[in-house]
Design a protein that fits this description.
Length: 481
């Protein structure tokens, strides 16, 4: 117990120290310090009350308005000047507070799962010693990513504790912080959360068994066919060009990129849908109609509120988003995995290595959790890793539950932490002469990533995978003894 207390104190000290270092470090120079998306949020802060009640905020931005409502309230109460420096400082403080709150929820989750010291170190390194928390938060504070991350951790905690009201509160707050948090929270709160036990197929009824198998594999192949048709159509009709001046797809590696992304899709959907018939049979038995109706009512109510207070316009739409994901998925071979690795760290590799146990554990959490995993996987097809920020707790905690069943040497967990710190690039200088350097900033920003940095991170990804394969072999050999 004493060792765990010391471990927690050391980890919190490292986190707070590096956060302070990041906060007082270099800042993005675009938009006078607001950044790209931050330019829209700066305008919200300047005319919050007028824009909110005059329907001047578009639908996309209104779903990120929560932090700026807090900033506006603080500015009004303290009678502060309305300028970019004040907004950045207040947002920096707000981000810091939310990350500290997230670390407290993280500790509660570790205690709930009874994690060993070694697992705590690895998990803490994954969640907090990464690029978005240690580097991006201080460099580009006028984003809702970091608050969304914190809400995601709170949502996970209340989900495992089965606190339905608290999950709903996180969902409502999240609906105005990050668009996908609304659906995520509703699925977790209202879909069945009992363990999914799939029945075996009937052995004597050969024709029925055969028809079920054919149906299952047809369902598995549907997403692959859908992906192939959309991607090929996009290639031929759009000539590899996508919006926002993103990197053009590498034509020479196009076929390989499509094959590898198709293989990822096949692996995932085979793992989840290979027993589709049985899966839906269990779902129908577990569904509670009252809860589904309640879920729909909450969804409709929040969307009505969003429609009432937002303008009809939107900076993004579903159609453009789908084709952005498709374009990103074929930008380079395994560009999605490589960028998620560069953004969130080594646990991406651990999920792949322990995939069989991982997916079994997901099924034990029920249909709500499984639905959220499917959502996260769809977003992971693209290589803009920011889209996964709210899903991270639900993606990563299962792998730490698995690791906790092994005897991991403390030296391994310390090496993992040090490697995470290096990969976080908290030490890396982005600006040149106090001006944001495009290449330095975009080195792990998926769609805009220069090809040379993709190659560098791909090499690091492969080397790291080999090291973690060795670790897995050692762990399994120890468990066999």
């Amino acid at each position: 117990m004493q060792n765990k207390t010391i471990t927690w104190l050391v980890l919190f000290f490292i986190l707070v120290s590096l956060l302070i270092l990041s906060i007082f470090g270099e800042k993005i120079s675009i938009g006078g310090g607001a950044g790209w998306d931050g330019t829209y949020y700066k305008k919200i802060c300047e005319n919050f009350n007028n824009d909110l009640f005059s329907n001047n905020i578009d639908r996309y931005t209104i779903q990120r308005v929560f932090p700026f409502a807090i900033i506006n309230m603080v500015v009004e109460i303290l009678n502060l000047q309305k300028n970019i420096s004040i907004y950045i400082n207040l947002m920096t403080i707000l981000n810091f507070i939310f990350i500290v709150i997230a670390s407290i929820f993280f500790k509660l989750i570790c205690e709930y799962h009874n994690f060993k010291i070694q697992t705590i170190i690895i998990a803490f390194s994954t969640f907090f010693l990464n690029y978005p928390i240690l580097k991006l938060m201080g460099y580009y504070p006028l984003l809702t990513d970091y608050i969304t991350f914190s809400i995601g951790i709170a949502l996970y905690y209340y989900f495992i504790k089965r606190k339905s009201i608290s999950v709903l509160i996180c969902t409502v707050v999240g609906a105005f912080s990050w668009p996908t948090l609304l659906i995520q929270g509703l699925l977790l709160n209202y879909m069945p959360n009992k363990e999914i036990n799939l029945q075996n197929l009937p052995k004597k009824q050969i024709l029925r068994r055969l028809s079920i198998v054919v149906f299952n594999y047809f369902v598995i192949l549907l997403p692959i066919i859908f992906y192939g048709i959309l991607t090929i159509s996009h290639i031929f009709f759009n000539k590899f060009q996508i919006s926002l001046h993103r990197e053009v797809t590498n034509n020479n590696l196009l076929v390989l990129s499509m094959i590898l992304t198709g293989a990822m899709l096949l692996l995932f959907f085979y793992s989840v849908l290979r027993n589709t018939y049985q899966l839906f049979s269990v779902l129908i038995k577990q569904l509670n109609i009252k809860r589904i109706v309640l879920m729909i009512l909450v969804f409709v109510t929040i969307n009505l509120i969003i429609n009432l207070i937002s303008s009809n316009s939107s900076r993004h739409n579903i159609h453009s988003f789908i084709f952005e994901l498709l374009s990103e998925s074929i930008q380079a071979p395994l560009t999605n995995l490589v960028n998620h690795f560069a953004y969130y760290g080594f646990t991406i590799i651990l999920i792949i290595l322990f995939w069989k146990k991982y997916i079994q554990l997901i099924f034990e959490q029920g249909f709500g959790y499984l639905s959220v995993l499917c959502m996260a996987f769809i977003f992971s097809i693209g290589n803009e890793s920011r889209y996964l920020i709210n899903f991270i707790p639900f993606l990563f905690f299962p792998i730490f539950i698995i690791l906790n069943s092994y005897r991991i040497a403390t030296s391994w967990s310390v090496v993992f932490m040090l490697a995470s710190l290096i990969l976080s690039r908290f030490w890396f200088t982005i600006n040149i002469n106090n001006i944001t350097n495009w290449e330095n900033y975009m080195l792990s920003q998926g769609p805009w990533q220069p090809f040379k940095f993709y190659i560098i991170f791909l090499i690091v990804f492969i080397i790291s995978s080999l090291a973690l394969i060795k670790l897995k072999q050692q762990l399994e050999n120890q468990n066999d003894k």
